[in-house]
Structures are given as C-alpha cells and as structure tokens.
Amino acid sequence: MITLIICGAPGCGKGTQSYLIKNKYNLTHLSTGDLLRGEIANNTDLGKTANEYISQGQLVPDDMIITILANKIDSLNFAETNGIILDGFPRTLPQAEALEKLLREMGHQTDVLLDLVVEEEELINRLLLRGQTSGRCDDNLETIKKRLTVYHTQTEPVSEFYKKLGKYTQINGMGGVDEIFARISKAIDSKQ
User: Fold this and answer.
1) Which of 171, 158, 161, 167 is CA-nearest to residue 118?
2) Is residue 151 within 8 Å of 116, Cβ to Cβ?
3) C-beta atoms surrounding 71 within 10 Å
4) Is the peptide bond before 61 cis (omega within 30 degrees of 0)?
5) CA neighbours within 13 Å on the CB side: how many for 108?
6) Does residue 98 contact residue 62 with C-beta atoms inside 8 Å?
7) Which of 130, 107, 113 is nearest to 11 (CA)?
8) Residue among 117, 113, 116 at smallest CA distance from 161
9) How far is residue 67's CA from residue 4's CA, in Å, rounded to a whole number?
C-alpha cells in the first residue's frame, strides 16, 4: 500500500493534483476538507462545530480531524486500491504524530510528503479566483490572509517533521497543471 501526503499552503493546487495522482496511481483520495464540507453540508453536529472554525479561517481541532480520518481509513477496502493520498492532513504536528501512530497500528507507513510550494501572491490570486466560482465562504481576502498565517505558524512545522523522517519532497507548484503533475510523478516514481 502506498501512502502519500500532499501538502502546501491554501491555493497551492493540492486538490487538483490529488485528483491526477489518484487516477494515475489508483489511490483513494482522502481530503479532510471534503470530509468536513460533507459534514457541514449534511448539517451534522460535527459539521456545525467545524464550520465555526473554518469560517473564521482557523483549523478544526486535531482530535476532531483525527477521528474523522481514522474512521474513513478504517472503512476502506484496500483490495480495490493501491493506497491512499491524504490531502489537507496532517495540518499540525500532533496530527502528523497521530497519523504515523495510526498507520503503524495498521501495519502501514507514510511513503512521502509532497510539499507544493507556491509564491504567496500567486496563492492569494488563485484563492480569490476560486472564491468567485466556488461559493466557498473561506475564499475572501480577509479569511485568506488568516488562513495563510495559520498555515505558516501551524502547518509548516509538519514539513520539518517529515524531513526528519526522510520522507519529505518539495515540489515547485508554480506553472501549469501538467507541468506540476510531471514533477510530482517523477517524485512519486523515485520513491517506489
């Protein structure tokens, strides 16, 4: 089983690239953002709580995310997939540590963390453009700036954690979708 993590600042292209990776390598795409948006759309208690954090540009508490993800991984049929790609998780050091513990308990491990690096001005432009078409409440300039601050303070340390484990690969996230995907494919292929 392959376990990939794709990370980067909001707007770096994680969702777009995850879709391409999922199809090329026959992986199950697990997006905590999608899982949370599903809870919000279904108006569950978890969704209501999560929405309070998300609408303020804050991260949802670690224990809530870990529980959602563990339940989802537990429900997967690994006979039908080559593994998983995690998109938007882990976002904090405790989440990274919990993920590694969870995978070890399941007899698996993370193969690589792919860090899509994009210039901040480009991130803001991409998110504002997405906000015009997606209807996402968190794609406005004020919330984007908060999300980027949260990313730099809480999520960037996750990269250091995976560097220490020898599982970190930086990917230049500037350019066209296909160009970026070619860089990602080369990195994944070198890990197999």
Assistant:
1) 171
2) no
3) 10
4) no
5) 17
6) yes
7) 130
8) 113
9) 19
Give the whole-angstrom CA distance, residue 63 versus residue 65: 6
Which pLDDT tens digit goes with each residue over 107-162?
889 999 999 999 999 999 998 888 888 777 777 888 889 889 988 898 889 999 99
- Binned at pLDDT 50, 70 and 90, residue 180 comes out as very high
Residue 30 is predicted with a pLDDT of 92
Identity of the amino acid at 76: L
CATH number for the domain whose boundaries are 2-191: 3.40.50.300
Tokens, residue 134: 């997606």
Question: Residue 74: its pLDDT value, please?
Answer: 81
Nearest Cα to Cα of residue 84 among 147, 4, 182: 4
Residue 22: HSE in the Cβ half-sphere, 13 Å Cα cutoff: 16
Enumerate the domain spans of the chain: 2-191
Q: What is the pLDDT of residues 89-103, one digit of tens each?
A: 898 899 999 999 988
Q: pLDDT, tens digit, for every residue of 33-72?
A: 888 888 889 998 888 998 898 888 787 888 888 888 887 8
**Lookup: tokens for 188:** 């994944």
| Nearest by Cα to 63 from 92, 42, 43, 85 | 92
Peptide bond just before 90 cis, omega within 30 deg = yes
- Contacts with 140 (C-beta within 8 Å, 6 or more apart), sequence order: 128, 131
